[in-house]
Design goal:
alpha/beta; six-stranded mixed β-sheet; two-stranded antiparallel sheet; 3 helices
Amino acid sequence: MEKTNQIHGQILEHTSGTALWWLGNAGWAIKSDGVLLLIDAVIENNVKGDPGMSERNLPRVHELPLRASEFGPGQLDLCLVTHAHGDHLAPRTIPTLNERTDCRFVVPLSCRERMLALGVHPERIIDAVHGHKIAHRHLTIEPLKALHGHWHGSVYKEANF
């Protein structure tokens, strides 16, 4: 049986300073003085609910430390997505967070259509554009240009610069 709630309690109890939790792959939960954000969270099981399979239907190499379904209204401020690959813009995590929380989603323009297709209302999407800072309470997010891949070519060809 899959363990759940391994770090959800820690996240809720953390109230001052900055803490971070690794969620697997490129995913992180960061909480700073009461503001919680997730980055590239892929934290749900596959459509059949199989704890041995990721939401991308790939075998899991570790248990999920946190599930999107553990969150409720007021518990998550922002969900950041770096690009539209399924191991970053998660096909089950995003709709679950959209349904269960009131968070906003910070995404590159190249991810906007995918977010809309997953049911995220346009007012909950914040466009991440290089050179345009995003302020949320005491935090400032500054989107940067980046390549996913190597110096001679990008793995993610749809990236918008």
